[in-house]
Amino acid sequence: MKKLLSLCLAVIMLVGLAACGDKPAESDPLTSDVTTTTGDAADITTTAGDTADTTAGGAEESTTTAGDTPTTAPTAGNTDKKPTADVGKTTATTKKKTDKPPANYDITTAPMPKRTLTNKELVYYQWEGIVTDSKSWDSLMKKQFGITFKVKKGNFYNYWSSLAMLIRSGDSPDIVEVSKFSPRVMSMDVLQPVDDILDLNDGLWNETRETMEKYRWKGKVYHTFLKTEMESWFFYNTKMMRNYGVKKTPKELFLEDNWTLEECKKIMDKFATKDGSIWGLSVQNCNLMAIAGVKLVDFDGTNYQLNLKDPKFATILNWIHSVGVAGNNTMQCNDPVGDFCNEKCAMLLTPTHVLYSERAEKIRDDIDWVPMPKLDKDSPYYLEMYEMPNLAIAKGAKNVEGAALALEFRRWLYLGRVQETDYLQPKINAAVKKYKLNVAAAYDHLDKDEVAWTQEILKKYDYVYTDNDWIGWLAENGFIASFPGYYETLREGKPWSSLVETEYNRINALLKAFTA
Question: Model-level pTM greater than 0.85?
Answer without folding.
Answer: no
